[in-house]
Predict the 3D structure of the following.
Amino acid sequence: MAEAPLHVAIIMDGNGRWATRRLLPRVAGHKQGVDTLKRCVSACMERGIGVLTVFAFSSENWERPADEVSGLLDLLAGALSREVAELQANGVRLHFIGNRAALSAKVCQGFAQAEASTAHNARLVLNICFNYGGRWDIVQAAAKLAARGVPITEEALGAELSLAHVSPPDLLIRTGGEQRVSNFLLWQLAYSELYFCDTLWPDFDAAALDLALGSFSGRERRFGKTSAQISAQGSGDAPTQASRLAA
């Protein structure tokens, strides 16, 4: 059976539908989603999860209605001003992952300040993927290597990806009932366990997280090997807890 995941990734889906069902503007669902993320961070720390990576805003989300995009950017700015101090106090290290070229100087400055103020924390690494796309991530990594004239190998490319500072996710959770990865961590999810649930993100709580972790614990992670090999050689076939978390 699988060890407890040290790195959990979440596609936080269903905010807009949560609001629509309550006859509220979609941005109200995103606001509620921020509160859910705060609770999820606490629950992950309580369960010994070392890395949490969340999909906050995709590179395709710019196509959404202008008022929703504006509301999301306002929520981001508010969260940066309100939440970073508490995250710092709780030992959370922040990383903002994604293409910053399309973001305002103010937002980029906020990202940089949040990352700097939490840089020495070690209780939980929180990667917030904002204006992120898996295809973009692979392309930008390859472009860096090409610009330096470095041969493009799996190891070299992996070292240039946006999540090179952590091991790949052990578990991907997607809320909201959809069953696809939607251009999220395309490289990193190669051997992640996938868990889909119907719960809309604003309703996702510690009990829902435990259901996902329970499902994960029942999986056999073979990493390309057979069940017989795993049984014969034991935990040595799969990466150890320490090696999976190591940057």
